[in-house]
Every structure is written in C-alpha cells, then in structure tokens.
Write a structure and sequence with these properties.
Helix content is 64%, strand content 19%. The protein is built from 13 helices and eight strands. Strands 5-4-3-2-1-8-6-7 form an eight-stranded mixed β-sheet. Helix 8 (213-227) runs antiparallel to helix 13 (324-337) and helix 9 (230-250) packs antiparallel against helix 12. It is extended.
C-alpha cells in the first residue's frame, strides 16, 4: 500500500515538474523571443499602408491593410484565421451567420442592408392582391376613362392660375424690397449687441486674470525653482537616457524611403527643409528628402522593418518605476501644472 502511494506521489511530482517547466519555458519564450514588425506605406494623392506583426513566424501573425479609406485586419495563428473584419472573408461570414440565422438573411448583409431587407419583405407581403381586388380594379377602369375627358377643362383653369401666381410673386418682390431698411436695422442691432457682449466677456476675463495674477506668478516662480533644482536636472538626464535606450531598441533595423514636398511659397518650403534637416541624424542614408520649390506637392514612400522584445520593455518600465527621483519629479511637475492637488 505504501509502495502504491509513493508511486502515485512520484507520478504527480513528475507531472507537476513537467507542467512547471512548460510554464517557465512559455514565459521565457514570451519575454525573450521578439515581435517582428513591418510597415510599408505610400502616399500618392491617396494614403495606403500595410502593417504586419509576427511572433515565432506563424504562431501569431497580425496583418493590417489601409486603403480606399478602409482598414482591414487579419489575425492568424498557425496559418488559420482567428479574427478579421473583411466582409469578403469566409471567417467574417461565419461570424455573421450567428447574428442573422433566425431571420434567414444572406450572410453578407450588414445592419443597413438587413433593415432594408426586412422592409422589402414586408412590402412584398403587403403588395400581394387577391382575385376579388383585381376585379374591383377592372370595374374602376371606365370611371378613370370618364375622368380623362375632364382634363381639358382643368388645363384652362391652370392657365388662369399661372397668371394669379405671377401677380402674387410680383407683390412679394415689392414687399421684400420695401422691407430692406427694417431688416438692415435689425441686423445692425444684432451685430452691436454681439460686440457689446464680447466686450463684457472680455472685461470679465481680464478681471479674472487680474484676480489670479498672484496665483499665476506663484506658479511661474515655482516652475522656475523646480527646473533649477539638482534633483530635477538629474531626473532629466535619467529620462533622456531611458528614452534613448528605448529608441535604440525599437528603431527599425531596416529603413528605406523617399519624400518629395513643396509649399505654395518657396520661402515656406525652405523653412520646412531647415526643420527636416535638423532631424537628419535619425534618417540619414535611409530616407531621401527632395524639396520642390516650384509647386505644392507631397508624396513619398516608407518601408520599415524591426523588432521589439517584450522582456526589454518590461525591464525598461520596471527601471522607471524604481527610479524614485524620476517618479517624484514627475509627481511634482504634475502638481505644479495643476494635474494633481
């Protein structure tokens, strides 16, 4: 009996160790195996882009496409589609079957089409006529023929009605012209009242600013003293270090593209070019920037490919949370700006 119990405990222990090992292996895989992303975007009078995120090649594959002002995504695992919003996909139609199955409606219908379909079905059922109704319609045909003879007298009456309408239109035009001074008076009065209301609101706002002058000056002095503190400068150095480290990790390993732009004014094009040149260390030898000083234009292409490691992101977030000086500085900054009281 003891031998059997020991054997059962041994089997349970081995099973638990195997499960624990699988969990640890899965956690390590999630933390250490990176996510690979790809972005391919183009803009030639219309924006089109394709983005893709993969993990372990085919275990998780998320693809998104944007074009014709429409976004479509596909989420796959081991080659099988798990979720999508593409109406032409059979997986999307399968999900829509559950919504419309009790109404026996075609699967590809969306909400508006479904409502129209139901209304159309009701109209068809209401439009069916019996044989007795058909006979009644046939009996009414002679009466309709007699009414056609009366159309001649109706046309003469309509001619007289046209002359009456013309006279009424002329009277309305004369009345509209004579009412112009009164309408101008009302419009000028409305504009003056709006100007007076604006001046009253402006006076009230200025009085509020004067009343809060001491509070605003105190905030400015506190912000200046806060920025001059050694702890704030140290926190700023740490923040720049973390941001640079994050950028080095998530930046694309492969980056290619070209941009062509031009403004209405050549001087504005030169100013934009100067601002873009300041960012040259980030894209040099990867993106070609071509200014056009003769026409207003914007077009280009961009291709980026890189990876992101979840374990690194968690470590980066943990370092920020454990940096007490940085967290305290952020909290003080929010207090000065009025975010937290």
């Amino acid at each position: 009996m003891v031998h059997v119990l020991l054997l059962i405990l041994k089997v349970l222990g081995i099973t638990l160790l195997i499960l624990l090992g699988l969990i640890i292996l899965l956690v390590l895989m999630v933390l250490l195996i990176p996510l690979y992303y790809t972005i391919d975007a183009k803009y030639y009078e219309e924006f089109r882009a394709v983005g893709r995120v993969r993990w372990l090649c085919f275990v998780i594959d998320l693809k998104g496409l944007y074009g014709d002002e429409k976004f479509v995504y596909y989420l796959k695992s081991f080659g099988f589609t798990i979720s999508t919003n593409d109406e032409n996909s059979k997986h999307y139609r399968k999900g829509m079957e559950e919504v419309h199955e009790e109404y026996d409606v075609p699967v590809t219908m969306v909400e508006d089409d479904f409502d129209a379909y139901m209304k159309e079905e009701g109209a068809v059922t209401r439009g069916r006529t019996s044989s007795a109704e058909l006979q009644n319609q046939q009996r009414q045909l002679p009466a309709q023929a007699a009414s056609d003879t009366e159309l001649g007298t109706v046309t003469t009456e309509t001619k007289q009605g046209i002359l009456t309408k013309i006279r009424l239109k002329i009277e309305e035009a004369i009345e509209w012209v004579t009412s112009i001074p009164m309408r101008l008076h009302y419009k000028i009065s409305e504009i003056l009242s709006r100007i007076l209301d604006f001046l009253a609101d402006l006076r009230e706002n200025i009085s509020k600013l004067v009343a809060k002058k001491d509070e605003i000056l105190k905030k400015v002095q506190d912000a200046r003293a806060f920025l001059q503190k050694p702890s704030t400068k140290e926190a700023w150095v740490d923040a720049k270090k973390y941001l640079l480290r994050l950028w080095k990790h998530i930046k694309p390993r492969k980056l290619q593209g070209h941009v062509r732009f031009g403004m209405e004014d050549p001087a504005s094009t030169g100013q934009v070019l100067g601002a873009v040149a300041a960012l040259m260390p980030l894209y040099k030898n990867h993106i070609v920037v071509a200014p056009d000083f003769e026409q207003q234009i914007f077009e280009g292409e961009l291709y980026a490919k890189g990876r992101v490691q979840i374990g690194f992101l968690l470590t980066w977030i943990l370092k920020i949370l454990l940096n007490r000086n940085l967290m305290n500085t952020i909290q003080k900054a929010r207090t000065i700006l009025g975010g937290n009281k």
